[in-house]
Amino acid sequence: MAGVIKKFFIASMFMWMAPIIILYGFNHDLIPGVSHLSPHSLTLLSGFVAVISVNIVIAFYIYMAMKEPSDKHEPDAKFVSEAKASVSQLTGKAEDSSQSLKKEE
Questions:
Q1: How many helices (H) and strands (E) does the chain have?
Q2: Would you call 22 exposed, middle or buried from its count of C-beta atoms within 10 A (0-12, 13-18, 19+)?
């Protein structure tokens, strides 16, 4: 569980830091070749690249989550037994109500 929280925290940090760094770099001419752009083009390009960076971080986070082994997670036995009992109780009541409807017809 700690590994999942750590991955989530790191991905969240990058989702905040990457666009801010990109916007700062564009606005302070730290990225080569953007000094000749008009202010309108500079704003559009920096915003587009910042949004793309967030999407890349999200895609990487999803990839890491999909790569995580699924056999590590065992369901709680008590929860599973209570859920099965609840479902069987509900299906029993549903069958009783459907039989009473048939009798009424």
A1: 3, 0
A2: buried
